[in-house]
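so my prof wants the structure for this chain in the tokens format not the other one, which i didnt know existed until like an hour ago. anyway here's the sequence
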Amino acid sequence: MKHVKTILLVALITVFSAFTLVGKGYKVGDIADDFKLKNIDGKMVSLADYTDAKGFIIVFTCNTCPYSVANEDRLNALDAKYKEKGYPVIAINPNNPDVQPGDSFKLMKVRAKEKGFTFPYLFDEGQKVYPKYGATRTPHVYILNKEQEGLRVKYIGAIDDSSRNEAGVKTKYVEDAVDALLSGKELKTTNTRAIGCSIKV
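here's what i got, hopefully its the right format
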């Protein structure tokens, strides 16, 4: 009987936790706070450093998730296409390296060099930033647009509609969103489902 009560208690805590997580993090239309995180070169980076940026492509990603690995070349391509137009890629590793050793700061530097990352790859030490955004997967994208009120969230979700196979991409959600912002048009799609690995806490 005691064992059954323990199982029921654990189940109730799990359900309660799931409900308390609902609604956490930014929604499209919210104003996002700035942050300051350590880049792989050891320097601290904040969005305020990018005085000429019109906005940002924020991507929560990591070394070890196969979905993240499958999107690394796409991130380099996005940065190459949009950085000079005012929307640089900013990658953040949200994983706890004590739980996922392959996502240590040391190995982040190795991976970035191997893949020739052209964008900052920041370490969310203490896992303080990703909960503010409400990121749950790697990769998970947030497009921010600089406005008078601050950095407004314009899109949340996946990079495109083919998470593992770039050759199968039919709809490029992030490109479509940034192109719309650059043209001063309304975004046709503002939310998609981020497909990837759960963030390791």
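also thought this was worth mentioning. Residues 2-23 have pLDDT under 50 and may be disordered.
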